[in-house]
Each structure stands twice: as structure tokens, then as C-alpha cells.
């Protein structure tokens, strides 16, 4: 369960239960992006409805968010319905509505994890120390101010940076905040659309569908604390107005915490 604090992230995802399976929230300009709020914050808010629900079982294993339309400034309602609960698993339907219209939908899968054989097949990429890298300073979007990003490669910098599909950076909340599932959800979407890095020029683009796979346990989150995460993102193909993205978030000790996939539209 997320505990409300004065941190901007906690204020942004704050919800009040108004009826069975219903939560009320408010969107302001704190995490504003090009059209509506930063998508990672919308995803974190939807997940928070399940995290706060009195019938919640276990912790999130996956979350799929469909961005049907931009969330506007003002009040909204989230319908959080546990569709099926088994002994150790739970499936959720999450709907965010404004003015009676569904703006974002999501499904989530929760489970009570058990100790089993474990192996991490993916290797954490090598990276210089955080304090060797400058913080990215950008002011054109409100949500940038709430993250400390230290790019190693693949920064979107028109006319100056190399064209590439891939990005690698250190990132954490600003000011620092202990990592939990909501914060991890939001950070999983901090990467610019891959077409920005590939062409190194602004292109109208936005995420349509995003799926997070949570590898992190509560112990992993607590061990990470408010430390930086290493984020890596790449793409497979840009075609007929849509492109994919595959991203990973690693703890500083090399533990894989999150795998994310998404599809984004783009225009010429």
C-alpha cells in the first residue's frame, strides 16, 4: 500500500475511495506532458487503485495500460474491479473516467509470490558511476522536473546527439523517494519515444499501449531504497505510423526490477 506523503508523486497518485470499487482523484499540472499528464503517472495512478483496494491480494506482476484518450486537468474517477481472485493470484480491470467517458483502461495481474528456483538471464549493461554524469536539464515539460536523469547514451538532443535506437541512463525521483511499485511503474515510462532518438528531431508521437512486467519483490524495492535505477530502452521497428519499445530497469546492484514493452504512434 502506498502511504501518502508530501512528495509530488504521492500527491499525483492520491486517491480516495468513494464507493465499492470506485476511487476519486485529481489531475493537475505537476506531471504535465505534451497532451495531458505524463503517461507513467497515469499508469501509476491506475495501479494505485488496485494497491489501495481492500480486496487486494499480493503484489503486482504485470500491468497493461491502454491510453485511449488524454486525461484532462481536473477530477477523475477510477473503477477498480477484481475480476477473479484465486488462492494466490488476482486479476484486475481498471478504468479511468472523466466526464463519463473512459480515457484510460488497464488490466493488472497480482500474485502472492513464493520462494522458488531463481535465475536472472539478462545481464545488466555496464555504466559509469552516477556522479560522473551531468544531470539532464530540460524545462519544456513539467514532469521532467520530478526526475533526476543522467544520460550515458541515446539522449534526445536535436542537432547534437547521435542518431540511435537505444538509450541508457541513470534515473530516480526528484527529490529522492523510496522506491515502491507505483514509483517503479512511473519510472518505467520515462524514456522518450524511440523515434526521437532515432531521428534526433521532434516528431509528434505518443504511447498507445504499455505493459510492465514486475520482477521486483518487496525486498528488492526496500534494498534499492531511493537509489538511482539504470534504465535501458531500444526499438525493433518503425512502420506505418507505429513503433515499439522494449525497456528494462535495473537496481544499482544489477538486479532486474522491471521489463516494459510498449507501442507508440508517430506522425511525419
TrEMBL record:
Pfam families in the record: 4HBT_3 (PF13622), 4HBT_3C (PF20789)
Coiled coil: none
Domain Acyl-CoA thioesterase-like N-terminal HotDog: 33-110
Domain Acyl-CoA thioesterase-like C-terminal: 123-265
InterPro entries the UniProt entry points to: ACOT8-like_C, Acyl-CoA_hotdog, HotDog_dom_sf, TesB_ACOT8-like_N
Name of the protein this chain belongs to: Acyl-CoA thioesterase
Organism from which the protein derives: Halopseudomonas salina
